[in-house]
Automatic annotation (TrEMBL):
InterPro entries listed in its UniProt record: Glutathione-S-Trfase_C-like, Glutathione-S-Trfase_C_sf, Glutathione_S-Trfase, Glutathione_S-Trfase_N, GST_Omega-like_C, GST_Omega/GSH, Thioredoxin-like_sf
Gene source species: Pseudophaeobacter arcticus
Domain (GST C-terminal) ranges: 172-296
PANTHER family from the UniProt entry: GLUTATHIONE S-TRANSFERASE OMEGA-LIKE 1-RELATED (PTHR32419:SF6), GLUTATHIONYL-HYDROQUINONE REDUCTASE (PTHR32419)
Origin: domain of life: Bacteria
Protein name stated in the entry: Glutathione S-transferase family protein
Gene3D superfamilies linked: 1.20.1050.10, Glutaredoxin
Length: 324
């Protein structure tokens, strides 16, 4: 694990010391948008026009943030329009790599690079910051459009509708405000909350994260006992953003990140909801459970120094969900 400083790779674990042992996720730096007509989006400097075959998505199957983008690519029928490369699950001293010796790791289809940091320095030779996935690459302008999953799923939600004819809307105008409110709590205490627990290097930092995480899971369980989806009857991006964390919870976060007050299968509504989303057309094919289990346990040697992969329970994602 490391980062780029002025375009040079430096092997360095997260700095938690300066935050009292707490993990702080850094902000994504490429924040431009693909839009239907190429006009600028809500952030960044520039707009990029939606075109079939122009964009390439770099993902890790292990990563919950990258997973959102793969799900939206599937839900919105973008597989024939946006190509992908999948990194190797092991993220060690050199960061994400394009090694191919793991089933599902594709190598870099565009440049045959060996490391993901080369994609960042291709876009900006002097880039300083973390080398994260997902990365949305523009083949025409040869640069990174965005490395922020929250933005990429919104681009996929609508920018290519004129090309695909798929007008499913997971970010409907009238629900944007309530979606934002749920996203914000879910991001802080659940999506990022599990990382705050797992990467904490002090008891205080862990305690500060684990309480709010399980408070939020209790709140979500209650919400989902009353409504099918977080926004009621309509499936939205808020659900997909929660799903990628729920999916990884019992196989990884419960043990590896010490989120072990309860498992997702101990919450009847969350567990059935998670299965419903898993069984939604196109979603199962985006799940790379081998990469998920391998990545976390093998890559985080500060947490699991002997790199032993746990046996894990058999989880039946295809059990009928009974919701709806
Ligand atoms: N804000 C980013 C966060 C992405 C992110 O942190 N990805 C992780 C993988 S799960 C990563 O690449 N980490 C590498 C690092 O922090 O050095 C997003 O949501 O797109």
């Amino acid at each position: 694990m490391g980062l780029l400083i002025d375009g040079i790779w430096k092997d360095q674990w997260y700095d938690t010391k300066s935050n009292g042992g707490a993990f702080k996720r850094s902000e994504a730096q490429f924040r431009n948008w693909v839009t239907a007509d190429g006009s600028a989006g809500p952030t960044g400097q520039d707009g990029f026009e939606a075109e079939s075959g122009r964009y390439h998505l770099y993902v890790s199957l292990a990563c919950p943030w990258a997973h959102r983008t793969l799900i939206f690519r599937a839900l919105k029928g973008l597989e024939d329009h946006i190509s992908i490369s999948v990194v190797h699950p092991d993220m060690l001293g050199e960061g994400w790599t394009f090694k191919r010796d793991s089933h599902g790791a594709t190598g870099d289809h565009l440049f045959d690079s060996s490391h993901a940091h080369q994609i960042y320095t291709r876009a900006d030779a002097k880039y300083s910051g973390r080398v994260t996935v997902p990365i949305l690459w523009d083949k025409t302008r040869e640069t990174i459009v965005s490395n922020e999953s929250a933005d990429i799923i919104r681009m996929f939600n609508s920018a290519f509708d004129g090309i695909t004819g798929n007008d499913l809307d997971f970010w409907p105008e009238e629900l944007r405000e309530p979606i934002e409110a749920v996203n914000s709590r879910v991001y802080d205490t659940v999506n990022n909350g599990v990382y705050k627990c797992g990467f904490a290097t002090s008891q205080d930092a862990y305690d500060a994260a684990v309480g709010p995480l399980f408070d939020s899971l209790d709140w979500l369980e209650d919400l989902l006992s009353q409504h099918r989806y977080l926004m009621g009857t309509q499936l939205t991006e808020a659900d997909w953003r929660l799903f990628t964390t729920l999916l990884r919870f019992d196989p990884v976060y419960h043990l590896h990140f010490k989120c072990n007050k309860k498992r997702i299968i101990d919450y009847p509504n969350l567990w059935a909801y998670c299965r419903e989303l898993y069984q939604y057309p196109g979603v199962q094919a985006t799940v790379g459970m081998q990469h998920i289990v391998r990545h976390y346990h093998y890559s985080h040697d500060t947490i699991n120094p002997n790199r032993i992969l746990p046996v894990n329970p058999d989880i039946d994602w295809l059990e009928p969900h009974g919701r709806g």
